[in-house]
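Hi there,

I know you've been waiting on this one. I reran it after we fixed the sequence typo, so this is the corrected version. Both the input and the resulting structure follow.
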Amino acid sequence: MATPRAKLTVELERHTLGGWLMLAIVVLWFIAAVAVFASVNSIDGDSEPARVALRIFGALLMSAIGVFACFGFFTLEPNEARVLMLFGAYKGTVRSSGFHWANPLYARSRGAAPSASPVPMAKKLLGEGATQSSLKTKLSLRVHNFNSPTLKVNDKRGNPVEIAAVVVWRVEDTAQAVFDVEDYESYVQVQSETAIRSIASLYAYDHGEEHELTLRGGGDEVAHALKKELEVRLAKAGVVVEEARLTHLAYAPEIAPAMLRRQQAEAVIAAREKIVLGAVSMVEMALNELAKKNVVKLDEERKAAMVSNLLVVLCGTEEASPVINAGTLYS
């Protein structure tokens, strides 16, 4: 049996009435209510009590309507939006900045969600330490930064490493951010940490095979793969990822000393390899020059001794102390 898929919400942009125009209308409405209430004095209360009561009721009703209309005013700064909800139904999103007026019955909050304070998952499941905070219908469309905590994960070879990243994101679709996920900010944090763990398991920390990308040497390629992973995970929340990049990468403390010794050994081996190649080239050049210029003729035994002496001098870690032969060449 196929699992039913959640239907994605589509954003509808709405335009509201100007706040300044409605403010002028509300002020005139209050003036009219005061005028109605003041007109009561011009009526003889003994002769027409019904008219007096009717005008007082009308003035009070007009005042109540004016007060109710005042709850429809709201402001939006640049790169801010407000989701309009009427009795649980989505009516649209206001994106233009400025002073606005909308139906006062539009909800000011969209329910409650667990606080974003760091509480262990076990306590959240048990209801311990979790507080409820109101989720506002006003959303920020500005660019946000999320610095992930340092996570301990296993790389492609199973080595424990510490990794952290920064994710630059912003809300693109307000309807999806509000209605398709519980709390989009918490969703971004959880999915970002999951994506970082997933990417870390696809690459080795270092010393990969030939032409293999690694976490340490991959750089831009690893950052691009992390961004793609985040885009797939955060698309259902209406969030766009601007940039994602690793900020911390190191071996876990329990294997860091062993890996440091390994890196030192590999560095020594690489250096020795270059020294030996250079020394062999210099010995070969010396023998060729001696033979070419007929400086001295050496038999195979003397050549072997000369090669041995030169390699000791060129490959030694300490400065050699030569011994001068004061006799003949073969003594």
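Quick highlight: The mean pLDDT is 78.

Best,
R. S.
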